[in-house]
Design a protein that fits this description.
about 110 residues; mainly beta; 7-stranded antiparallel β-sheet; 4-stranded antiparallel β-sheet; about 60% strand
Length: about 110
Amino acid sequence: MTSFANVTVDAKANVYFDGKVVSHTVHGADGSKKTLGLIYPGTYHFGTAAPELMEIIAGDCKVRLDGTSETSAIEAGSSFEVGGNSGFTITVEEGICEYICSFLPA
């Protein structure tokens, strides 16, 4: 997906890990919520409240879901889901990883 219609965007950025992960929140007319962001090289852990769908739209990363020992390589055009009240560790080894995070119904 390269664009969104009928949305509002929060101008204030969500900045994590000293600016190494930055996103903006997008609200759909249907009540949906997404974040669009960039992840710079490093390893970061995120907790989740609601279930999430993470779509990698550029770059690549490695992901380990909380409660598992398996690490998966995720490339542009691929996605992964994270359960609510859970979390994941994401590693970007080089370049910038771009993503769309969709918050799913619980």
